[in-house]
Amino acid sequence: MRGARDVYHQLVEMSPDAILLNEYGVTTFVNRAGIRLLGADTSDQILERPLRELFAPASAERVDATLAALCAAPGEAAAEELEFVTFDGLPVPVEMRAVSYHVDGHLIVQMVCHDLSERRAAQTALAASLARFDAANRATGEVIWDWDLTNNQIWFNDSFEARFGWPVVDLPPEQTTWHSRLHPDESEALLAHLDAAIAGTDDTWSAGYRYRRLDGDYADILARGVILRDDAGVGVRMIGTIRDMTDLKRAEAELEQRVADRTSELQAVNEELESFCYSVSHDLRAPLRGIAGFTEILAAEHADALDETARGYLGRVVNATRRMGELIDDLLRLSRVSRDEMRVVEVDLSSLARGIAGELRQSDPGRDVTVDIEDGLTALGDQRLLGVVLENLIGNAWKFTGHTADAHIDVARADDEGPTAFLVRDDGAGFEMRYADKLFTPFQRLHRADEFPGTGIGLATVQRIVHRHGGFIKVDSAPGHGATFVVNLGRNVL
Fold first, then answer.
1. Which end of the chain is more exposed for a tag (fewer CB within 10 A), N or C?
2. Do residues 348 and 460 share a domain?
């Protein structure tokens, strides 16, 4: 008998739950778990105290009633959720299970108290989480779904009805109901995609598809889901959202159509303008040739009959005719830049630049200009058009260094601007950067014609060519410190 009591005592002390014995309302025994639960240092703080003093006031009366009932009916059991008060004054929720029995003529009430703190905290956290979920659900207005893969049951929130018209309360829970409303042209591929995601190892899935509304129309939707897997990696649940993209898709389609219409209109206007420019420039050649021819005859055969003033007027006519010819040539070139088909090849920019520099030296042998051209500079583009770019940029550098002693021109990679850029730099006249936005506009000039001749079309032509290659051009300059033009051809520079 004594051995049995020892075993019982050991089991009681090993229990994770608090165990108390009570006789006539007084605590006669408490195990170690009970001492810890109540925050006592020793059992002496608990023993010989009325049981009700260990509980919160709201629980004390219920404890008294439970003890009275158990004492009146030995052998009966009772269960209550009560609240201890630790010796530090902290409340501890417990589930108490009590039973009364006779031992050696004494009526003993044994109580086993399980700490509910963790459960209550979990319940509180769950309630808070559910509240947040509900708030998010109402705030977003998106359809939320929860699919149990083990039994093929699916749940939708109330937004499902608002979006698609199907009453949620009338929806069969089987996931096959969702299958039946997929667009027939997409159903097979979509389900295969979904099955592959569940059978795979990724935890996310998304797809765009069409879903039939209650009114028979199809909505364009975007669905996203998270796959929950068990320890073996098998998908057991999917939770996700559905976003109705119908209005957005319709707006995108309308915008694309408007852009296409505007692009077509703009293209037609540009083609008409370019054709007009070409025709006008071409048609001007004939009368200009007549003016130039008769002016040359007048200067050659009748110059002696003219006085100095008349000869001055004649010289002005000759110069104006020459400038008009240059302007027409530049306009035709600008027109052809947009009209001609591009033939993309690998272009040796270094070789082109050397050829242009050589021609400038031959046409202006009196100039002393150092032209440094980096070796191996190549690009993918139209060789003729890129030649026009270099002609204009190097030609401008040559022209605007006309008043600079020991002038320098550089053609090199622009590494600071990225791997696809090259530059043409000079130490010539330069200009104020506040006027830079005018450079690439036709007929805009930043210097007087008597200082530096030109038509003001060259840089507009350069910009158009660079844009056709998918790139851009920019400039940096200061008066008296030259100018640097940087051409970036996108991915085309090798």
1. N
2. yes
